[in-house]
Specification:
structural constituent of ribosome; Ribosomal_mL53_fung; single chain; ribosomal protein; 4-stranded mixed sheet; Glutaredoxin
Length: 98
């Protein structure tokens, strides 16, 4: 997963729900050096009696925001979903640097 273009990551999940594995893998995919260099990572653990829905919301360097419910996705599908926009930013960056 291309995490280079993330500026903010918000993950909300139930640790005992089916979305927990996907959410935890997403959080572990962000390198520690990137967390120190400016990526804001927020996570919220939900209880079984809460009315909030599990979500993963990512803000990119171009201020675009993408939000998805991780309970119906695998980590690979989640990575592909966010990589679509990251690849666009990488292409734009490579065109501008030439």
């Amino acid at each position: 997963m291309l995490t280079k273009y993330f500026t903010k990551v918000v993950v909300r999940f139930n640790p005992f729900g089916k979305e927990a594995k996907c959410a935890r893998l997403l959080l572990s995919a962000i390198p520690p050096a990137q967390r120190l260099s400016g990526v804001s990572v927020q996570n919220e653990l939900l209880t079984t009696d809460t009315t909030k829905k599990p979500t993963v919301k990512i803000t990119f360097k171009d201020k675009a925001e993408m939000e998805v419910d991780p309970s119906g996705m695998t980590f690979k599908e989640l990575g592909n979903y966010f990589d679509r926009h990251s690849r666009k930013l990488r292409l734009k960056e490579s065109i501008e640097s030439q």
